[in-house]
Amino acid sequence: MRQLFVFLMVFVSIKTYAVDMNFVGSGVSTIKTIHSYSEFGGGDVYLKLAEPETTSYPSGYWLRKTDPGFDANLSMAIAAFHAKSRVVVYGLPDEMWPGSPTGKYCHLYAIQYQ
Questions:
Q1: Using CA atoms, how far apart are residues 18 and 2, in angstroms rounded to an integer?
Q2: Which domain holds residue 78?
Q3: The domain that contains 106 carries what CATH number?
Q4: Is the pLDDT of residue 108 over 60?
Q5: Starting from the edge strand earliest in sequence, which strands make up the sheet with 105-113, in order?
Q6: Pairing outcome for strands 45-49 and 31-36
């Protein structure tokens, strides 16, 4: 009974945290482009999907070198790009990339293989 209680508390906490983050997921797609900057933003990277969401963030998603999950997310993105794996990308719509005056790039929250 105690294990069930602990599981439910963890599950509710995760769901509450996810709702508070306000992230938005793309549709299932492949990664079309990965672009890396040597200096802008201290090493920003952005990626574009082959089939972007036309209503949400048609330009793509970006990561900053100082993001805690930068290495893991970039590694997953590069692997998915080369393998042409299907992914769903989640982004934070309140954090747009300052590197593009014309496109809308949402700050990457997570990458999920499909």
A1: 24
A2: 22-113
A3: 2.40.50.110
A4: yes
A5: 24-25, 87-96, 105-113, 60-63, 45-49, 31-36
A6: antiparallel
**Neighbour count for residue 105 (Cβ, 10 Å):** 23
d(CA 88, CA 74): 14
Domains: count for the chain:
1
pTM: 0.76
Whether 92 is covered by a domain: the verdict is: yes
CA dihedral 43, 82, 89, 108 (to 10 degrees): -10
Residues 23-45 pLDDT 10s: 888 999 999 999 999 888 888 99
DSSP assignment of 72-107, as one string?
HHHHHHHHHHHHT--EEEEEEEEEE-TT-SSS-EEE
* CA separation for the pair 33, 61 (Å, rounded): 11
The DSSP code for 29 is B
